[in-house]
Amino acid sequence: MNQITTCNYCECDDLTPILQVTDHSITNEKFELLECFCCGLIHTSPQPSETEIGKYYQSDNYVSHSDTKEGLINKIYHIARKIALNRKASIISDFHKKTSLLDIGCGTGYFAAHMQRRGYTVSVMEPDPGAAEQAKQKLNVDPYTTLEAVQGTYKTITMWHVFEHVLDINKTFEKIESLLDTDGVLVLAVPNPESPDAKLYKENWAAYDVPRHVYHYKKTVIKQIANRYDLKVHSILPMKMDSYYISMLSEKYKGGNILKAIWNGLRSNIKAGKHNTSSLIYIIERK
C-alpha cells in the first residue's frame, strides 16, 4: 500500500485530509481522502499497488465485473443500465455514427455490445480476466487486457466510470490522446464529489468506493488534465440515474431505507441542475 505524500498528478506536496472513508464493499478497511491544494485532485490514501488492487475487486458485490442480480440494489442497477444504454448511444451519435469506438474498462461488455448492434466497429479493453471473457463471448472480439497494448486510432473513446480506478493519470491521458482520431471525442464519466448527495452523505457517500476509486475528480481537475494534453472539455452532461443508485447504496451503509434514498436522490438532482449531479459525463475533444 502506498501512502500518498505528494499529488500523483501535479506533484505538489500540500495535501489536506478531508474525510476518512470505509471500504464498505469488501474489507471494512479505512482510508483517508487527501485534497491537493495546488490542483484540487482528491486522492485515496493509502493506495493499493497494481499487484495489491485485485483483492479489492474479488466480490460479487462488484456488479460490473460479476453481473450479479442478487439483491434489490443490484436488480435496480441492471434496470438502470438498460435505460442508460440508449442515452449513451444517443450522446455518441451526436458526434459520430457507425464509426470506430474503443470502450476502455468495458466490464462484461454490455455497452460495447449495444454499440456493436448499432453498427459501430467496436474494440474493448478490460483487465479483469473474468469480465473480459464475458465481453469476448458477447462481442466475438478479443479484448485488450492493458491500455498500453491498444493500437490504432478511434473516432470515439469511452470510459464509463473507469477513470476513477486508474492509478497513473498522466500515463493514461497521454495514451488516450495518441489513440484519439483528429476529430475524435473522449466520453468520460466519473462520480462528482461536489454533488449535493456527496455533501449530504459525506463519509458514507457510496461513490467514494475506496480503495477501488483511487482519485475523486472535481470539474476543474478534469479540465486541467484535458488541457495538459492539448484537449478541451466540449460539454458536461448529467447522469441523473446515478443519484438514486448511489443514494440507495449510501443509505445501506448508514442503515437507512430505500424510500429515504429515493427522496435524497430526487432532492440531489433538483439541487444539482444539469452540471452538478452525482456523476457527470465529460465530452472531451482536441483543441
TrEMBL record:
<protein>
    <recommendedName>
        <fullName>Methyltransferase</fullName>
    </recommendedName>
</protein>
<keyword id="KW-0808">Transferase</keyword>
<dbReference type="InterPro" id="IPR029063">
    <property type="entry name" value="SAM-dependent_MTases_sf"/>
</dbReference>
<dbReference type="GO" id="GO:0016740">
    <property type="term" value="F:transferase activity"/>
</dbReference>
<dbReference type="Pfam" id="PF13489">
    <property type="entry name" value="Methyltransf_23"/>
</dbReference>
